[in-house]
Amino acid sequence: MKIGVLALQGAFREHKQMLERCGAKVCEVRKTEELEGLDGLVLPGGESTTIGKLMVKFGLLEKIQERYAEGMAIYGTCAGMILLCRDIIGSDQPRLGLFGARVRRNAFGRQRESFEADLFVPEMEAGEKPIRAVFIRAPYLEKVGPDVQVLAEVNGKAVIARQGKILTTSFHPELTNDDRIHQYFLKMVTE
Ligand code: GLN
After folding, report:
1. Model pTM?
2. Do the Cβ atoms of 153 and 159 come closer than 8 Å?
3. Percent helix, strand and coil across the chain, each rounded to 5?
4. Which of 146, 154, 39, 54 is nearest to 94 (CA)?
5. pLDDT confidence of 111, banded at 50, 70, 90?
6. Rounded-to-integer distance, Cα 41 and Cα 2, Å
7. Residue 126 binned pLDDT confidence (cut-offs 50, 70, 90)
8. Pocket test for ligand 1, best of 53, 92, 106, 113 (most atoms within 8 A of CB)
9. What domains can be seen in the chain, in order of their start residue?
10. Which DSSP symbol is given to 148?
11. Distance from the CA of 115 to the center of ligand 1, in angstroms?
């Protein structure tokens, strides 16, 4: 199983470390050729407008869409979630648009620039021992399409969601020691 981490900007090193800890073979992706042969791709948090512009510049948007159509799984955290969504409220920034949801950026408000929350996620073996989620200028999904399964919410807003081979989280599990979300993604990749 070979997993790529988009390494244009943002928290990609932490994802790489966590995926390696989970036993995956991981490579950094900056060029279209580096997407060949990948079973899964992680889009890290960072600044979605910056990452999106760089993806356009390097021809990565089309190539990722193409590899997804061929069966590559994708996991987007925070900015990565935004880049996957079809509809970004108030923005025409570049995106992959593969995930059938409407996302709001910086959605939790200024006074809550960053915060932590405990999430109970039975699908991720976190029914009893919650996942500690770190939110940093985080988005949430305001509306999801019929193919999207919401796995966790904060204040009634979706913060973990899945659509087939795509997983999205509003927060940063790579900044904690808890690898259950990465384990879940790796399981998705092999399904
Ligand atoms: N607010 C950022 C954006 O809109 C995302 C923040 C993050 O990835 N931690 O791109």
Report:
1. 0.96
2. yes
3. 30, 35, 30
4. 54
5. low
6. 9
7. confident
8. 106
9. 2-190 (3.40.50.880)
10. P
11. 14
